[in-house]
Design brief:
Layout: H1 3-9, E1 15-16, H2 20-26, E2 31-36, H3 49-58, E3 63-68, H4 90-115, E4 121-125, H5 127-130, H6 135-141, H7 148-151, H8 155-162, H9 170-173, H10 175-190, E5 194-198, H11 202-216, E6 222-226, H12 254-262, H13 266-276, H14 281-293, H15 299-313, H16 315-330, H17 334-339, H18 343-353, E7 355-358, E8 362-363, H19 364-370, H20 377-385, E9 389-391, E10 394-395, E11 402-403, E12 413-418, E13 422-428
Parallel strand pairs: 2-3, 2-5, 3-4, 5-6, 7-13
Antiparallel strand pairs: 1-6, 8-11, 9-10, 9-12, 12-13
Helix pairs in contact: 4-15, 10-11, 12-15, 12-16, 13-15, 15-16, 16-18, 19-20
Length: about 425
């Protein structure tokens, strides 16, 4: 399948400067870039949509250059904000940058494995472009080529200038000059001829292409944007939207991400499979066909969830998240599944689902209270009388039952359940 056709089928085309983008990059051996600002100490899923678009270029032998905004984020981006942002410290920006650089490298290596081929990329910090430049050089070599008239036509800047209750500092106003110089430097130093970004970057990309043409007298620089990823109700992924999916397992666990996508709507699941995975389009069609035979089984959502977690956190994390989900929602043989876990998977299940550490032998009433499955021993007695308590899937009818070592699944685990869906893992101290 040709580059343009695949991007269209995956819904990864929004705007592009000309058809030459596809002609040139179909042949390979070219370079393109994406800018990533260290706004936090972790990327979130919305940041990766342009990268998923770029992978389709990389699969054809092109190299991706990722620009880490170590310099640009010292002054912030005015885009999308009505008020001046508080500047972050240099130390925080650099620390964020190092974490994000590692995330980008890990993500691209996993995508390389999923693509089954070598993907060429490098990460460059734009702080290196500016650390030895003085203000006079910057104004002569960059500021000269972008007019204030042009800059104030940008909608986000225009709104801040025209509203008497808002304002924009010279610092934030200068942000777009730095980004324009990024493209100029990459164009000259690394032979980059294409910038890829989200659809909200289109105005900026055109401005920077114009800067290159003015500074060098001619230019074959081009631009390409991908649509912002939104759900069927119109929400986009992002921390400002309150539905951020972080690429840091300490901010949201792989299981949390897995469950998020298991709960995707039928309207969204096909779109997400095309944008957020590298599964062949034919495979995606097969998944959707099978899903439509029994939508209530959520076959497509479960495959989507597995693939996204595998992409973000790795194969092992995807397997653990899948097993936890199966344990909670999809299998009646919970003890059998628990016994099949590897040691690290069992530990992850305990950490994710919560439970209690115990010193066996322990009375069943005490175990129910310790794991918060009962509010008191009286409540625990009522649960047993109602035939709603299970230890390792075995119904408990005797309120004098004692959990001993023989009830422990290997590695000292016990599966304690009340009714069908309320359960905890007990673990030996």
């Amino acid at each position: 399948m040709e580059l343009k056709q695949e991007l269209q089928k995956r819904n990864l085309i929004y705007q592009y400067t000309d058809e030459k983008v596809f002609e040139v990059y179909e042949k390979g051996w070219q370079r393109l870039y994406i800018g990533v600002d260290p706004t936090a100490d972790s990327l979130q899923l919305g940041n990766l949509i342009p990268i998923m678009g770029a992978v389709n270029f990389m699969k054809r032998g092109n190299k991706l250059v990722l620009i880490l905004g170590g310099a640009t984020w010292m002054i912030w981006d005015p885009g999308g904000k009505d008020t001046e942002r508080q500047l972050k410290s240099i130390e925080e920006i650099r620390a964020n940058g190092e974490k994000i650089k590692k995330q980008l490298q890990n993500i691209l290596r996993r995508l390389e494995e999923l693509a089954g081929q070598k993907l060429e990329f490098e990460v460059v910090n734009n702080y290196d472009f500016y650390k030895d430049m003085n203000i006079l050089d910057f104004l002569r070599n960059v500021g000269k080529y972008i007019t204030v008239n042009q800059m104030i036509t940008k909608e986000t800047v225009k709104r801040r200038i025209e509203d008497p209750d808002k304002s924009i500092s010279y610092t934030e106003f200068s942000y777009m000059l730095l980004q324009g110089y990024d493209y100029l430097r990459l164009y000259q130093d690394k032979g980059v001829r294409l910038q890829l970004g989200g659809s909200d970057q289109w105005w900026n990309i055109l401005t920077w292409i114009e800067l290159i043409g003015k500074a060098l007298g001619k230019s074959d620089a081009r631009g390409f944007t991908v649509p912002l990823l939104t759900t069927s109700d119109g929400k986009k992924f992002g921390k400002s939207e309150g539905n951020a999916i972080w690429i840091d397992a300490n901010k949201n666990s792989p299981y949390f991400v897995y469950q998020y996508f298991v709960n995707a709507t039928d309207e969204d699941v096909g779109k997400f499979l095309k944008v957020l995975t590298l599964l062949p389009l034919e495979t995606i069609e097969e998944i959707l066909f099978k899903h439509n035979q029994s939508p209530e089984k959520r076959y497509a959502q479960r495959r989507l969830a597995y693939e996204v977690v595998r992409f973000l956190f790795g194969e092992e994390a995807a397997e653990i998240a899948q097993k936890i989900s199966e344990l909670v929602f999809y299998t009646d043989s919970k003890t059998q599944l628990l016994k099949s876990l590897k040691p690290e998977q069992a530990e992850a299940v305990f950490d994710e689902l919560g439970g209690a550490k115990i010193d066996p032998p322990i009375h069943i009433l005490e175990a129910l209270v310790a794991s918060w499955l009962a509010s008191s021993k009286s409540d625990a007695r009522r649960a047993i009388a109602q035939w709603s308590v299970f230890v390792n899937d075995e119904k408990i009818s005797d309120e004098n039952f004692v959990i001993t070592e023989k009830d422990m699944v290997w590695d000292g685990l016990v599966f304690l359940r009340r009714w069908k869906k309320k359960f905890k893992i007990l673990k030996r101290n």
